[in-house]
Design goal:
This protein is mainly alpha-helical. Helix content is about 85%, strand content about 0%.
Length: about 525
Amino acid sequence: MSDKHSAQNQNSFFGGAAILAAGIVIVKIIGAIYKIPIVNVLGSSYADFQNAYYIYALLLTVSTAGLPVALSKMVAAANARGQEQQVQKIFRVSMAVFFSLGFVSFLIMFFGAQWLAELLNDPLAAKSIRYLSPAVLCVGCLSSFRGYAQGHSNMVPTAVSQIIEALCKLVFGLSLAVLALRAGKSGDTAAAMAIVGVTIGSVLALVYMALQYWRNRRIPRTREMPAPAAVILKDLLAIAVPVTLTSAATGIINLIDTSLVQGRLQDALGMTLEQSRTLFSAYSGVNTLYNVPASLFVAITASIIPAVSSRLAREDHAGAAQVVRSAFKVTALAVLPMGVGLSVLSEPIVALVFKSLDSHLSGQMLSVLGFAAIFVCLMTVSNSILQAYGHQKLPVYLMIGGGIIKVIVNYILVGIPSINIHGAPFGTLCCFSFAAVADLILIRRIVPERPHYGKLFARPILATAVMAVAAKGSYLLLAHLGNSIATVLAIGIAVVAYAVAVVVLRCISREDLLLMPKGKKIADLLRLP
């Protein structure tokens, strides 16, 4: 393979990741505009909203987590071999599976809403669960279209559909929640109205993706005989089931954790339902911030699997290894400052963003979750690498092990009166740090042309340390200006300090930048040799 072709492939990988990342940034901004006021508007009833979302996320994971990954991987490999008929048949088989699983998930949420709510020790969440049930059916089909597009290295439809979902959630969800409260409706009804926006968004996003598919679908020009549907289904499930189990393990752990934390607060500490919901709402609120880094890394993980798979199908092992190294470097450069920044400025950020939360209580939890976010991103990227190389089962075992650790830590710590809700973030940190470190060890043992973690992570860690000192120091110096101004200025100073440190420490080389869109211009601007 020529160097030119390899560079084009790398550019395609980063181009796709950049498009998705840009879309996700927009989605996160819209989400913040939605989540911040919704937490403040709903107050303790935000727990009902969040508990319904945990149920939705688990069932969505079961019905869609592994199949888009399998679909994009199989489509990318078939494309690389020029098997156009095979690509279309893979899509048709996957759509049938997506719809079937989504329909079953819809039935479970709609008819089992009350039972699921009581399982989480929050019976008031039943209405939100039921109102959210149609979304899981729509998103099942939506994921099939997304996987098909990503398998063709086309990330634009996925990014646009995510923006549609986010805008609908903001416009319809927030408006309906506010109208419900103004009409004198109960808090759990307002939470259900807020979640209707998610359902509306999934419907409209599905319509958009279907139109994009019919407009841009490729008419096969080859006459090769595609594999039988049974063979395609078997291959899909062989890839999808382990990936689904990995993601489902996370969802199941979150559900167990939600039920356990609220149960321990009520049973071990004698709190009322309202008291436990108030504390859990504070925890759920800061989880919104903690989830931001991981959400942004969906772009990287969505691009890794088809990028590596297509190279391995062409037996371009050097190109696949370069994608792995580049993914790790981008992860380190992006997630370290985000996680550490959330931690060192935790209390000021909470006070700035969530006016209805106790900034001291929530800030202490966010200081721990900021570090946990780093390990979540490392684990997510590492899982994608292992899955791309055909090791789908290993992440499942590690996630189960991490989940068991989380449940044990939370059960012990939350039940201690002096710790209570503060124990939950430590359980999260222990869970994902174990899974991430174990993933990195496995990659060193399994993947050819092993990545050198010292070279990849050392300089980003030093640059992050500079950023952390700049963030904390500037906030302390500017605190007399008021929290809002001091926090915004401190974040700005930290960003500048980090950018300077990255350039001075040469965290990014010219070779790295040449693999990215417009990389040569950036390298020339920074005068990198």
